[in-house]
Amino acid sequence: MDKILRDKKAIFIFIAPALAMFVVILVIPIIQMFYYSLCDYAALTPPKFIGLANYKKLFTNDSTFRMALKNSIFFMIFSAITQQIVGLLLAVFLTNIPKGRNIFKNIYYLPCVLSSAALGLLWAFLFNPKIGINQLLAKIGIEGPLWLMESKGFIVLPMWVIAFVALWQYVGQNMMLYMAQITGISRDLYEASYVDGASKWKSFRYITLPLIKPMVVTSLSLNCIGSLKFFDLVYNMTQGGPNHRTDVLATELYAEGFNYFKYGYASAISVVLLVLCLVVTVVIKKAVKVETYEG
Amino acid sequence: MSKKRLSAVLSAAMVLGLMGAAAAPVNAMADDTEEITWMFWDDLEATEDLISKGYADVINRYNTEYEGKYHVTPITTNLEEYDGKLNALIAAGQAPDVFICNPGPNMDVYVNADVVMDLTDILTNQEADWYAGFTDGIFERMTYDGKIMAVPTNFAAACVYYNTEMFETAGVEVPATYDELIAACQKLQEAGYTPISCSAGTAWCLSMIAGYMCDRQGVDLAAIADHTANWTDENCIEAGTKLQELSQYFQPTAAGDSNDQATAAFYNGEAAMLVQGSWAIAQINGNNPDFESKCGVFQFPGIEGANDPNRMIVKTDNLLMSKTTQHQEAAIALMKMFTDETSQKYTAEVGGKFPIIKDLDVDYEAAPAQLKYVQDIMAKATGTFGFYNESLASVEAGDCFDNAMVDIFLGNQTPEEAFQAVQSFYEENVWTE
Amino acid sequence: MEKTKMIKNPKKKIGPAVTLIYLFLAVLAVIYLAPLLWMLCVSLKDNAGVMASPFSIPTTFQWQNYADAWSMGKLGIALINSVLVCGVTLVVSLLFGSMAAFAIARMKWKLSEAAHTFFLIGMMVPVHCILIPLFVRFAKMGLTNSRFGLMLPYITFSLPMTIFLLTSFFRSMPGELFEAAAIDGCGIYRCFFKIAFPLCRTGFFVSGLMTFVNNWNELLMAMVFISDPNKKTLPVTLTYFVGPYATNYVQMFAAIIIAIAPTVIVYSLFSNQIVEGLTTGAVKG
Fold first, then answer.
1. Pairing mode, if any, of strands B383-385 and B295-298?
2. How far apart are alpha carbons B357 and A93 in whole angstroms?
3. What digits encode the pLDDT tens for the residues C227-260?
4. H helix runs in chain A, sequence order
5. Which of B181, B263, C20, C45 could potentially form a cystine with B175 if both were Cys, beta carbons 3.0 to 4.6 Å apart?
């Protein structure tokens, strides 16, 4: 048996296809990306090494990039906080109702499997002042704001709107993760705590919360990386407008790379994005200390 | 053992696929037909645009007339991703034989990358008759160091379209000066109309108005390019201030409306004026045929005591030939067909754009009514200039200008701040040498 | 507080707290379903009707909108492309992924943990990072306008999750199974295809589902790599309605409905399995 499982040739054959794809499609391009980010490289001219000039320009002299970075970070923080809280809240609610758990769960999860390109268009039109919810508001005498067109403020209104739509679409994911974790907790623990006279809140605070902690790492990482990579909703709701006020890193990268063909500059943006993703993952891993947990 | 082979074959196939797929030839015509490609920014089958439909006719005519000799296959994309896809093809060594391109920095990219065929010799020697037929001076923006790099297919001029009914009801006359325009807007607003429909969501639409303001104020782009003038000069700031003043009369959703939405608001009778290129005629009449009779046209008003008020924004569509084409004659035959009398008459009478050849007998009775008005305005024009975003140092510089203008409109920046942003861009990227 | 008293006996009676929760959940359910139903309503009206009263129930049904959206938006061909690209991606990524996962989970070699970690790091890499280098290379190879070219990154980005999930599935299988097979003279390939493969059905279902949903909805890569209208996938085709048809609301909504209908139908039929499956995937992830 052992011999069969140590068959080097077989191992190679099993690993080779996946490894080859990984190296060719992922590893080599990432190395190239680092190199391109140090180059002045437009689509039709070969890359020319210019050192850190792209990065220097990004951080000292590109207000659109700063806006995109600010929006991406806002979006990440907003998503992390709201999705964690709302997701957990829904999970707790759903695990505490006697009937109808599945139907509610399935409804809230539905947008997660739908195309965000399609949902982005839908919401763009719901917030369209001519045919959208402003018409409803008008009926009760409220003049709605121009949801996707306001351009004032540190974080503009359209960015908040997009963030809420993202919450609407993706919170089901967190809800499901937490539900799976909570239903995994033995009922006896709760029964025992009630016998001891613990309130609902106390049993939540001292049983549920500690036991779902490992899931916080997973769902928080998913939230944060997911929101840093965010592209579809922004692209289909505002295309970064008005005037780049809702650009995020991904749309900015797309614009620099495929509207202006500044491959080198866009690569520098992708390096920033990659570094952010890695840093965030590490920080979350370090910040949320997880005791060994038997799942 | 077959399993092992399967895996080996799979990974080999994948690697081979990566390496080998490049060499897939497309034009494997059995006979001697010379196969060429033409790249264009609209889907020729699905389009509603009358100019695009005219281009589709040209392609059909070409393939019928030269059957057995030449054949052209169009490669189409949508407008937004056109440049990206074209660049990808050129970088891959699969440049289309003939492709369409905007003038200005957009075309500079291809000329500077040395992928465009120099047409000077062909036009001035080999095909002198063809060259002689073009409108005088039309090649000016396509000439680089004395070399002609493109052939135009049509041109359009930007004017102000207005709803004659609304003007009458509000008791407004066609304004000739900026002050009269503001007064007209005021009156229209009092009469309950939205005076101007404009799209700031599609930045170049707003930028067109800004371009007119700048030119009317006497901004000299050539001087700015040489750095003998600055974006922070008084005339620029004044243009920005006027843009800001005028933009108070835009529809409330201007900040987010796209070009199509803003144009639709005009032909659906929701606004009294629209500043657009003459390509909008086809769009207006196509979507709302009843509107043709109440749609008037006037030239963008002048500013008293400033620059010549008879200068017009115009824009050509151009055909470029790839430097690497193997079928030069087939490509020239195609270009000629785009500029022959049949297609040029179509351009004017159906498409609502201007022909680029001389001595063409256009039946203005058959053409959209608005084209005649534009034609009359053009007849008085003393000079032309390009879209500002297509006349600056680079595509990015154009976008920088557009964004600055949108910021003025949105009220996020004062005219001083906005033009300072353009100025800084020029200081860092353009005036460096 | 009243609430605390009720909680002692949470299962017997429906107290005010639970009623409040139900109320909240119901309102939320409306927020989730109303936009989708609104879209359905709009897609059956004409443009004038939408402008006049966007929130009313349509009186006459304009089925023509769907026919127009289908033909003008080239949705038929887009649907085929999406099915093709996602289908091939699904099969290939499951095959490659399960092979690698099997080697990592069950076979004995020094670098198996390292290989595991290596593939996992792939999950953290945003696709944006490889977009430009890959586009440049694919353009040179003539792969930018082919479905095959799109499948390659799709497969690659599906691999980390597939490998991760299947590794844990393979690891949870009892080792005796394979030992018994080996004693019967089973080769390693037979072990994999005849024993591990069939036993891992849940694992395939879960990772296949995640792969399919992710790739079915993927927009950015499809947008960058494909320009030929006859090779575009559904999400890309939808973005076209942003531009040229921006004022033709009804057709756009019909197109969106057509695009999401397959997912909604499949989801409503199998929602329990899908939700469970995806959660299993995410929990393990």
1. unpaired
2. 74
3. 777 888 998 888 777 654 456 778 888 888 988 8
4. 2-5, 8-21, 28-36, 53-60, 63-95, 101-113, 116-126, 133-139, 157-183, 187-195, 200-203, 209-228, 232-237, 249-258, 263-287
5. B181
Which among A31, A104, A131 is the top mutation candidate for probing chain C, defined by the most C β-carbons within 10 Å of its own β-carbon? A131
Q: Which string of b and e fits C257-273 if b means at least 16 CB within 10 Å? A: bbbbeebeeebeeebee
Q: Is residue A11 part of a domain?
A: no
What residues make up the domain containing A217? 64-186+212-287
B292-326: per-residue pLDDT in tens? 889 999 999 999 888 888 898 988 899 999 999 99
Kindly state whether residues B173 and B135 are assigned to the same domain: no
Average pLDDT taken over every residue of chain C: 83
Cα–Cα distance measured from residue B301 to residue B177, given in angstroms and rounded to the nearest whole number: 5
Place of tokens 């500044």: A262
Distance CA C113, CA A56 (A): 39
Residue C148 in contact with partner chain B when CB distance is under 8 A: yes
Question: What number is the average pLDDT over the span C54-78?
Answer: 84
> What pLDDT does residue B29 have?
46
Question: Per the domain annotation, does B13 fall within a domain?
Answer: no
Q: Do B179 and B234 belong together in one domain?
A: yes
| Domain C74-240 class, CATH top level | mainly alpha
- Asked if B256 lies within 8 A of A241 by C-beta distance, the reply is yes
Q: How many domains does chain A have?
A: 1
- What is the reported pTM? 0.85
Q: Is B93 on the interface with A (CB under 8 A)?
A: no
| Structure tokens, C88 | 């091939």
Q: Measured between CB atoms, which of A6, A22, A122 is closest to C156?
A: A22
Question: Would B76 be classed as within a structural domain?
Answer: yes
Domain span holding position B227: 157-314+372-429
Q: How far apart are CA A108 and CA B4, in angstroms?
A: 45
